[in-house]
Amino acid sequence: MKIFIERPIATAMVFMALLVLGVYSFLNIPIELKPKEDFPQLNISTSWSGVSPEIIQTQITSPLEEAVSTVKGVRKITSESAIGLSRITLEFEEDTNMEFAHLALREKMSGLKEVLPYGLKPLVQPYVPEDFSITPLLQYTISGDYSLQALREMVKDKLEIGIGAIKGISSVSVTGGSDAEIKVILDNEKIKAFNIQPYLINYLIQQRTRSFPAGKVKKGNQEFVFRFSDPISGVKELGETILTFSGGNPIKIKDVARVIPSFGEIYRINRINGKPTINLTIMKEKGISTIKLTREVQKKLEELKKELPADLIFRVVDDESEEIKKNLNDLYLLVGIIIAIIFILVYLVLRRIRPTILVLSSLAFSVIITFNLIYFFKISLNMLTLGGLTLGFGLFVDNSIVVFENVLRKREEGLQPVQAAIQGAREVFLPVLAATLTTISVFFSFAYFQGRLKIYYFPLAVAISLALTASLLVSFSLIPALSPRFLKKPGKKKQERFRGRYEKFLRFLLKHPIEVILILVLIFIGSYKWFRSEVSLGEWFSWYSKEMLSVGLRLPSGSPIEEMDKV
């Protein structure tokens, strides 16, 4: 401590440097709406459109379950087979390296190509509970005086490729309508006449769309795998595909079927004000700043709009950055109120502006140093973490108040400012250190939380512990170093006046103990009732609070989408 007190200017410059670094760190820390998810579980999902759950179970789910059960570290397997979808959730041991588990699963998947129906590719994804499911970064609806398919063809390629190229975007999807496809409508009489089975036609079409290995080339430590394919360029070329020969003459697809351009089945129809719409959903990667990335996407979207028809209408359905900005504004307001209250309370005790500002500066430096540590250790910074830091402001300023008050007391006893700073800080070092460590020790238990509790609250515990440690550093470095410049020996009259008022107030309370207890009980009961009326117990709080009315209708199973569209 003495080294800081004897070098106040150097100490102040060090903290100013930390202040600049802290501002830089805060501006470059990705601020998320909710905590990052990191569960020791993986999902395997496989889509096979329109197929019944029984076939999904026997041909996809069961073979996958049998294969993945041998992966090291798997503790529990749960599966679900629905119409057109197989979903398997693997739960691993706590100490499992999930990167190696992911690679092991992919290796198992590659060995099932001959077992699974042709063309199906199981997708391995991290397991995310519903409370932590990744919400879209941005979601738009696109409408205009065009048919659904025309809208889709206009915007799909431009938007998916243009926005998907932005760094930090994980996926861009355009939904609504259906993709273009080629339909092959068989003529039953002709295929019977030529004795051609439908499965042969299907098999030969699949062979045309496949790619085949053509060899490998090694160059140093690199290995290049070459494949060749014969893609179908259009309807005419597909119709020229040879199925078999009859009397030396080739029988082509166009000889036994009609090949026509068409569109796939539509499973979802979106409308706004009666007009068909296309949905544009943009997802971001984890650990990327939501607000900065949203600005980049919006800027790129404005550029892409110039290449699209001018009468297209883009409406924002969901914007995660707006929710973060709203929460940040509420948080800034809360910070201002808390700082104002702390300032008033400290001023009432010290009765001078400059010492009050010095004590209050310890709060700012504690938080700023914490941002440096959060940036360095790559700790998740979300609304919960920021809210916890804000509510902990009172804890962060406690140490500085104790140190400065003891330095002030030594000055009142007649010591010179520098000696008062040295002795005052030294006397309370162990008590303040013990009190701070006691507070930090409460958060040690957070490391033993499991599942969602740990994801929610462990980053909060680390952030508050770092801030308390930073406040300890500030209290015994910056405060003692600058205290001599702010100390003046207070007059006896001011001291006696303040003590006299406090003694009168204390005597009044001691004469009316029952009334004081009743008031405290009423405050407790009122606070508890207010808490129960405003807080839902036993539920995970929602990150979004949007007011909307949703109406749902369910038609009998098997009803065509056209019937639902009429409703």
Features:
567 residues; alpha+beta; Multidrug efflux transporter AcrB transmembrane fold; Alpha-Beta Plaits; Multidrug efflux transporter AcrB TolC docking domain, DN and DC subdomains; 5-stranded antiparallel beta sheet; 4-stranded antiparallel beta sheet; 21 helices
What is the SS-derived class? alpha+beta
What does the main sheet amount to?
5 strands, antiparallel
Quaternary: single chain
Number of strands: 17
- CATH-derived architecture of the largest domain: Up-down Bundle
Topology of this structure?
Blueprint: H1 2-5, H2 8-28, E1 31-32, E2 41-47, H3 53-68, E3 74-82, E4 85-92, H4 98-110, E5 123-126, E6 138-143, H5 148-164, E7 169-175, E8 180-186, H6 188-193, H7 198-209, E9 211-219, E10 222-229, H8 235-239, E11 242-246, E12 249-252, H9 253-256, E13 257-263, E14 270-272, E15 275-284, H10 290-305, E16 313-319, H11 320-350, H12 353-377, E17 381-382, H13 383-391, H14 393-412, H15 417-427, H16 429-442, H17 451-475, H18 478-486, H19 492-511, H20 513-534, H21 561-566
Parallel strand pairs: 1-17
Antiparallel strand pairs: 2-4, 2-5, 3-4, 6-15, 6-16, 7-15, 8-13, 9-10, 11-12, 14-15
Helix pairs in contact: 2-12, 5-10, 11-12, 11-13, 11-14, 12-14, 12-17, 12-18, 13-17, 14-15, 14-17, 15-18, 16-17
